[in-house]
Design goal:
Number of helices: 10
Helix content: 25-40%
Family: Belongs to the TRAFAC class translation factor GTPase superfamily. Classic translation factor GTPase family. IF-2 subfamily.
Largest sheet: 6 strands, mixed
Subcellular location: Cytoplasm
Strand order of the largest sheet: 5-6-4-7-8-9
Distance between the termini: 36 Å
Mean pLDDT: 87
Radius of gyration: 25 Å
Low-confidence stretches: 105-113
Protein name: Translation initiation factor IF-2
Number of strands: 19
Bound molecules: guanosine-5'-triphosphate, magnesium ion
Length: about 375
């Protein structure tokens, strides 16, 4: 950080605040413990007290959360993460709901209530699938711009009575740009006006060649209303996942991506995190974007408390010091100090960036006026 509270500096050196304030006064600086001093002054004080100065830099952050090269034998297969995309009103939410409801175990009271913006289901053949219930475009644009690529497979929903529309094309472009395989769900096949062949023909014009047109992209005719084809869709996903051979090392420090986050009145900041590698456990210390914390509780998609969450598992995380943003990356760190320093470093870097951007526009405005 480029500035630090006097009290915080004393705290970190494990020195008395009064002594630090006194020392600053001797240097000619009249500050109270609640004021901040710049990094250079802080450095002088630290040396004055006989401590070692360590400033956090980009490379320090990278060192702490560096990519671990997993050994082949540590890699275990993980469930695929699926995002649903498509044109407005083509039935994305309906399909997600229908899949979830059909898969809710009989007798699970109120099981259809969704707790978090992601859930897991098991296909009849036993494959576990993780669905992200975020607007597909957000999952791609904001998450990818923050460096979190979370999706393994895209389900492209196209209504059979409306065919390919502008957002269908946009979705195709997103999936292609991210190099994520697609499965086409031709929805609303229960409607009399449904024309699945027209959908296939139009997709062809956008270089999406489905299996029914002798291509490689799986296509399934479904109806979110009648449930037609949904089991087939799940099996198509399972097959695609098998081809991808998705793997992660559950034995390492967890890394995940924030799917959504909010400040909850009763529980404080809460983030839904999709664990991407490693295993997140209760008690783990972490940094997530510009926030940090210690996992106080983990809650799964069914609203149950769990001790841990492995790769591809979505969980609600409690115990954050602030609310992160969707797309922020969570990393478990070894120490509390590391997590806090990285968070503060990022926060400061973001502030500096905003300040620089602000200064640039002011300068520009001045130039324009001149
Ligand atoms: P946005 O989130 O607004 O982009 O829409 P969406 O893609 O999530 O569509 P949604 O699931 O909200 O469905 C839009 C409308 O289509 C609703 O009125 C649904 O009831 C209807 N609908 C969805 N799936 C089907 C289907 O399989 N058959 C019929 N007949 N109607 C459907
Ligand atoms: Mg919707």
């Amino acid at each position: 950080p480029e500035a630090i509270l006097v009290s915080e500096l004393a705290n970190r050196m494990a020195e008395r605040v009064a002594d630090v304030v006194k020392s600053l006064m001797q240097m000619g600086m009249m500050v109270t413990q609640n004021q901040t001093i710049d990094a250079d002054t802080a450095e002088l004080i630290i040396e004055e007290f006989g401590h070692k100065v360590t400033r956090v830099s980009d490379s320090d952050v990278e060192d702490v959360i560096k990519e671990i090269e997993d050994k082949e034998e540590d890699l275990k297969s993980r469930p695929p993460v699926i995002t649903i995309m498509g044109h407005v009103d083509h039935g994305k939410t309906s399909i997600l709901d229908a899949i979830r409801n059909a898969r809710v175990v009989a007798g699970e009271a109120g099981g259809i209530t969704q707790h978090i913006g992601a859930y897991q289901v098991k296909t009849e053949s036993g494959t576990v699938l993780s669905f992200l219930d975020t607007p597909g475009h957000a999952a791609f644009t904001s998450m990818r711009s923050r460096g979190a690529q979370v999706t393994d497979i895209v389900i492209l929903v196209v209504a059979a009575d409306d065919s390919v529309m502008p957002q269908t094309i946009e979705a195709i472009n997103h999936a292609k740009a991210a190099n994520v395989p697609m499965i086409v769900a031709i929805n609303k096949c229960d409607k009399p006006a449904a024309d699945p062949m027209k959908v296939r023909a139009e997709l062809l014009q956008h270089e999406v060649i489905v299996e029914a047109m002798s291509g490689e992209v799986q296509d399934v005719e479904v109806s979110a209303h009648t449930g037609q084809g949904l089991e087939e869709l799940l099996e198509a996903i399972a097959l695609q996942a098998e081809i991808l051979e998705l793997k992660a090392n559950p034995a390492r420090a967890a890394q995940g991506a924030v799917i959504e986050a909010q400040l909850d009145v009763g529980r404080g900041p809460v983030a839904t995190v999709l664990v991407q590698t490693g295993t997140l456990r209760q008690g783990d210390i972490f940094v997530v974007g510009e926030q940090y914390g210690k996992v106080r509780a983990l809650i799964n998609d069914k609203g149950e408390r769990v001790e841990e969450a492995g790769p591809s598992v979505p969980v609600e995380v409690l115990g954050l010091n602030g609310t992160p943003e969707a797309g922020d990356v969570l990393n478990v760190t070894e120490t509390d100090a590391q997590a806090r320093e990285i968070a503060e470093y990022r926060e400061q870097a973001a502030k500096d960036k905003r300040a620089a951007a602000g200064a640039a526009t002011t300068l520009e405005q001045l130039m324009q006026k001149a």
